[in-house]
Amino acid sequence: MKGFVKDPDSILDYTFDWGPWLGATDTITISTWVVDSPLVSEGGGESQTDTTTTLFVSGGVHGNNYEVINSITTLGGRKSDRSIELRVRNR
Q1: pLDDT for res 44
Q2: pLDDT tens for residues 20-66?
Q3: 20 to 30 A Cα–Cα from 56, which one of 12, 21, 37, 41?
Q4: Domain regions of the chain by residue span
Q5: How many CA atoms lie less than 13 Å away from 66 in the CB half-sphere?
Q6: Domain 2-88 class?
Q7: Integer CA distances (angstroms), 43 to 9, 18, 21, 56, 58, in order
């Protein structure tokens, strides 16, 4: 699981590039996110292209670590999940 450091007051975007996994012919049709509380998925902060998914996240408590999970379904019927760990630290 890949990790990032995030300040509790920041609002940052996190993107998964699914392109290499999808190959040349498949595309993302559905993307959903699960965000550990007290992190917040910023309203309207979710987006996707044919090969990437992005989420804007705010919040968190200094010293805590949180998991953010992205689940996709593709036009070809494949399903997969990826996750990142956000380490919240005052910066």
Answers
A1: 73
A2: 999 999 999 999 999 999 999 887 789 999 999 999 999 999 999 99
A3: 21
A4: 2-88
A5: 24
A6: mainly beta
A7: 16, 23, 28, 8, 10
